[in-house]
Specification:
The complex is a heterodimer of chains A (134) and B (64). By secondary structure, chain A is of the alpha/beta class. Helices cover 37% and strands 22% of the residues of chain A. Classes of the chains: A alpha/beta (134), B mainly alpha (64).
Chain lengths: 134, 64
């Protein structure tokens, strides 16, 4: 599990909190509670804001999954995969439950990403791996 | 019997999985299992089956 730092600027997102570490790696931790899947329109708006946040560049990301996450709808998978490709340099995923690990595995299995992506069980290993892509 | 369409709660998820697999062997992908709030290994299997059914349903439509 990733600890939310007290010495970094925390970015509040509808379903998660995010921050950049000293190396520019973006961390994301889900907010508690079930989150309804956003509509395509809401997703487009969030992606626009996300691109602004990244300053138009691709980022290395360490994401902690939502333990009760549900898979995206089939019709949304391709769009999400394409959008992620456009903003991601490398992605480390810390799966917090067998369900969320399966959801992420299915997503990456059905739409293999164009960037390096790997599962980890802790923040330190994730950070050690992603450093080489910064 | 135990699916989202009929609104029955996932009391016995392993039994639900067995029944769903039987339906799959009959090429019946019309019913959907419920994912519980546990997020455990059984839920992981269920989400895999849901996705499998979704993909097979889509292939069936393309081929028909």
């Amino acid at each position: 599990m990733i600890s939310i730092p007290t010495d970094k600027k925390i970015i509040d997102w509808p379903t998660s909190v995010m921050w950049f570490d000293e190396d520019g790696v973006l961390f994301s931790v889900p907010k508690p509670g079930p989150h309804p899947q956003p509509s395509r329109e809401e997703s487009i708006q969030q992606m626009e804001k996300f691109r602004e946040l990244l300053g138009g560049k691709k980022a290395c990301m360490i994401l902690q999954t939502d333990s009760t996450s549900s898979p995206p709808k089939k019709e949304d998978r391709e769009w999400i995969a394409k959008e992620l490709d456009s903003v991601t340099k490398a992605m480390a995923i810390i799966a917090t439950s067998p369900l969320s690990r399966m959801v992420a595995n299915l997503f990456f299995g059905l739409k293999p990403p164009g960037y390096p992506a790997k599962f980890f069980s802790n923040e330190k290993d994730a950070k050690d791996w992603i450093k080489k892509y910064v | 019997m135990m699916d989202a369409k009929n609104g029955i709660q996932p009391d016995n998820r392993l039994l639900m999985i067995q029944e769903q697999l039987l339906r799959f062997t009959q090429m019946d992908f019309s019913t959907t299992l419920i994912i519980s709030e546990k997020g455990d290994d059984i839920d992981a299997i269920i989400v895999g089956m849901k996705t499998l059914a979704e993909e097979l349903r889509s292939k069936n439509i393309q081929n028909s």
